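Re-run with default settings, no changes from the original entry. Doing this only to confirm the output is reproducible before filing.
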Amino acid sequence: MTAEDYNNSIIEMITQDYIDLANEQSNDEAIRFEDLDDAIIGTDQNGLLVYDYHQMVVAFINQGMAADDAIEWIDYNVLSINGGNGFTVIFT
């Protein structure tokens, strides 16, 4: 195992632990989007999951979408969900 592989495995483990912790701390009304766990950056003061917009775009690009399509999909299908109630998106 190279040093880079080791570092990546540690980062992946820490990231998954952080996502699991955020999910545990979220309230029952928090909306969790499928396939966007990598974009979760924590919970807000109300226990709602907080997503990083840029990481959401990256997640969809990694799933095969073009960047423009990912942005359009997020803007239409995520940001408009429930009038923003149930989750928080941070624009970075």
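The chain has one domain: 3-90. Strands lie at 40-43, 49-52, 87-90.
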